[in-house]
Design a protein that fits this description.
Layout lengths: L1 H17 L21 E4 L2 E8 L2 E6 L32 H15 L8 E5 L5 H17 L9 E6 L4 H6 L8 H10 L7 E5 L5 E6 L12 H13 L2 H4 L2 H20 L4 H11 L17 H6 L3 H8 L16 H16 L1 H10 L6 H9 L3 H16 L2
Parallel strand pairs: 4-5, 5-7
Antiparallel strand pairs: 1-2, 2-3, 6-7
Helix pairs in contact: 2-8, 2-12, 3-6, 6-8, 8-12, 11-15, 12-13, 12-15, 13-14
Length: 390
């Protein structure tokens, strides 16, 4: 009888072992033996799969490895977010880029318009130069069409070889031909100047001397520059606007729409800006503020930028001062650049329009930008120094 009991126990244990896998009671872990290829189990959120490894089946974890963050060498801080351009944050490099971006953005919203220019062209003007100047002028007409729609305006183009043509032409638009002839004869090798005017009868006109030896990239701003002056005439600009606005705004838009697309790097525009700074020469007038007459030294002087801007508040029609000699093309360009970068082209044009009805341009400025002109000069000062005095 005892022998029978022992045999039954052995048979029962053997049977129970044969119906359960050897690893059924053991939680899988990477590298441990498994039974059925492809079988999977999830233990505490980690998935294990039975895979063949050599001649054996083993459990393998499919949980992706968490990457250990690399140490921060030198303890450098993460990059700070880029702050928007404001009157209190005029970044030396980004302000110019932002102004150009806003000009380009607005230009892409415009469409081609039919030119209303009437041309008078000297016989010695090169055909390729004429084509390019017409193209540039049409850019100006298109960009400012929503603000300025002249029914017609006159464009007088000639070269240093067209003195006789100017002299012989009796067209009323040539009434100042004697002074044009004299300007050419005074400097025949420097025939790349231009001017805008409005006749007594209200007709708008600008004229350009086009050197037959060719035009440089800086000259791509001229047609647009002069066209903007015609717009300013329409806005009573010469009567109310100070020198820095009259010449600086025309230069800014001429550069942004003419030079900028020809050289998107900004190198040519920056060179032109610095070349214009050499025009700064207050010694050309009676009052001498800066003995060495350089824009850089003027800006580095105590309260220099504010003094430069205030001195450029004289009306363009002044008989004692010259806009170029007092830095209107450079300081005015950068002041306009800041206004456009911060508030946009539309706001700037609203300001110009408002000068028609307000008593002074300063009142129009304060109503548009919610700050006084003096406060603007203070905020502008570091930017002027960074762009022109370095």
């Amino acid at each position: 009888m005892p022998k029978v009991k022992i045999l039954f126990f052995i048979i029962l244990f053997g049977f129970s072992a044969s119906i359960a896998p050897a690893n059924s009671a053991v939680a899988p872990k990477t590298g441990s033996i498994c039974v059925k290829k492809g079988e999977s189990r999830v233990i505490k959120g980690v998935k294990f799969i039975c895979t063949k490894s050599g001649n054996q089946l083993k459990w393998k974890s499919s949980q992706p490895k968490t990457k250990t963050p690399k140490p921060n060498p030198g303890g450098k801080q993460p990059a700070q977010p880029i702050l928007p351009i404001t009157f209190d944050n005029l970044d030396q490099n980004r302000t110019s880029v932002e102004a150009k971006r806003k000009v380009n953005e607005l230009f892409l919203k415009t469409t081609s318009v039919e030119s209303t220019a009437i041309y008078y062209v000297g016989p010695n003007v090169r055909e390729d130069i004429l084509i390019e100047e017409k193209r540039l002028l049409q850019i100006g007409e298109r960009f400012f069409y929503q603000y300025f729609k002249p029914k017609k305006f006159h464009v007088l183009l000639f070269s240093e070889k067209d003195v006789d043509w100017l002299e012989a032409n009796q067209e009323p638009k040539f009434r100042n031909r004697s002074s044009l002839k004299q300007s050419i004869q005074d400097a025949p090798a420097w025939c790349n100047w231009a001017a805008a005017t409005r006749h007594d009868n209200g007709e708008l006109l600008f004229y350009m001397c086009l050197q037959t030896t060719g035009r440089g990239i800086a000259d791509k701003q001229t047609s647009i520059h002069e066209y903007f002056h015609l717009l300013q005439f329409e806005y009573n600009g010469l009567e109310k606007m100070p020198c820095w606005i009259l010449e600086g705004t025309a230069t800014f838009f001429g550069v942004a729409l003419g030079i900028g697309p020809a050289d998107p790097t900004g190198v040519s525009a920056d060179k032109f800006l610095r070349d214009l700074a050499y025009n700064y020469n207050p010694q050309s007038v009676k009052e001498i503020k800066y003995p060495n007459s350089t824009m850089r030294d003027a800006l580095l002087a105590e309260n220099g930028p504010i003094s430069v801007m205030k001195e450029l508040e004289f009306p363009t029609a002044s008989s004692t001062k010259n806009c170029a000699a007092w830095g209107a093309y450079t300081a005015g360009w950068l002041a306009t650049e800041v206004l456009v970068a911060v508030a946009g082209v539309e706001t700037f044009m609203d300001f110009l329009k408002l000068t028609e009805t307000e008593t002074t341009w300063k009142i129009a400025f304060e109503k548009t930008y919610n700050m006084s002109v003096d406060t603007f000069y203070q905020k502008l000062s570091p930017y002027l120094r960074s762009r022109l005095a370095n």
